[in-house]
Amino acid sequence: MDSFLLQILNGLDKGSAYALIALGLTLIFGTLGVVNFAHGALFMIGAFCAVTLNKLLTLSFETVDETKTDFLGNPLKVETPYVEAWFGPEFGGALIDWSVPLAILLAIPVMVGIGFVMERGLIKHFYKRPHADQILVTFGLAIVLQEIIKYYFGANPIQTPEPSALRGSIDIGTMIGFEANRIIYPIWRLVYFFFAMVIIAGVFGFLQFTTFGMVVRAGMADRETVGLLGINIDRRFTIMFGIAAAVAGLAGVMYGPLNPPNYHMGMDFLVLSFVVVVVGGMGSLPGAVLAGFMLGILESFASTTWATTTIPGINQIIIYLVAIIVLLTRPRGLMGRKGVMEE
């Protein structure tokens, strides 16, 4: 039972990233009808927002510490971060230590701005074009963004450590009645899962309980009728593109401590996220979230020693096998809507 629960936790961890990226993809497809293959690049940019803030906070200048000497007896030169010099070692050190969560404040305006620029500058010209054209142009944009990140940050992964207070592991087993040291799980992975749940709940709450969200949902169902009522639905859809970009970016920001950001991490998640969207049902927000967590859990169980020994490589193909089975039995996906991409 403890191994079973541990795999569930691992699946929820993986599923959190899948669900967040797939949620943003579905928001864009559901509102604008655009298949956005650049969405994985937005996830990558979010991760590098955390990298950028960490680098800015750790900018330092060199000073001589007379109280310390090197092996020759000379005064030792030390690097002092500017934030520690400006705000003191305690507060400045805390800013550096919590740079990843603080990067959320940087990522939100950056990602919303990038989303606006992408939609107004490029995507709007492809609304009425075939989906194949949309895939080609957004995939090309993803490659361009990937190469820009590679040029400025290099090809190697960059460490973005979680706050020291959230490092290490926690004994979850004792909380639910198991013996001590039976279910030990990293704290940051739990933080990422709960963060994902907050973001998902926030998006659904925004769409369900605000006037803006209700108009957007109406526009998703019947864009022309909403437009005839005198509502500028295009402006609202542009804002939703920015929100979808922010969701992907925030997923990337908090994912950095789990897997050091690199320039191709967006591509690594992109294909899997599209599989999640298709399995959940094109245009279905609940379907995207459900499929994200479901496939994350299945992938976790398929990665166990027993599974990989019984069927070598099953952990690499399980998601695609499930997608084939689902689409053969339910061509619209688990919660797909009638008429979506069926023309």
List the topology elements.
Blueprint lengths: L1 H31 L6 H19 L2 E10 L5 E7 H6 L1 H9 L1 H23 L9 H23 L15 E3 L12 E3 H23 L1 H11 L1 H6 L4 H23 L9 H16 L4 H18 L2 H6 L3 H16 L14
Antiparallel strand pairs: 1-2, 3-4
Q: What structural keywords apply?
A:
ABC transporter involved in vitamin B12 uptake, BtuC, transmembrane helix, two-stranded antiparallel sheet, mainly alpha, BCAA_transport_permease, globular
Characterize the structure shown.
The structure is a single chain. The protein has 343 residues and is mostly helical. It has one domain: ABC transporter involved in vitamin B12 uptake, BtuC. 67% of the residues lie in helices and 7% in strands. The chain is built from 14 helices and 4 strands. The chain has a two-stranded antiparallel sheet with strand order 1-2. Helix 1 (2-32) crosses helix 11, helix 1 (2-32) packs antiparallel against helix 12 (285-302) and helix 2 packs across helix 11. The chain is globular, with a radius of gyration of 23 Å. The N and C termini lie far apart (47 Å). The mean pLDDT is 85.
What is the subunit arrangement here?
A: single chain
Largest sheet: 2 strands, antiparallel
**Count of DSSP strands:** 4
Order of helices and strands: HHEEHHHHEEHHHHHHHH
Distance between the termini: 47 Å
Uncertain residue ranges: none
CATH class: Mainly Alpha
| Total domains | 1
The largest beta-sheet arranges its strands as 1-2
At the fold tier of CATH, the topology name is ABC transporter involved in vitamin B12 uptake, BtuC
Instruction: Give average pLDDT, whole number.
Output: 85
Please report which band the strand proportion falls in: under 5%, 5-15%, 15-25%, 25-35%, 35-45% or over 45%. 5-15%
CATH architectural name: Orthogonal Bundle
GO cellular component, one term: plasma membrane
Membrane topology: Multi-pass membrane protein
Subcellular location: Cell membrane
GO molecular function: transmembrane transporter activity
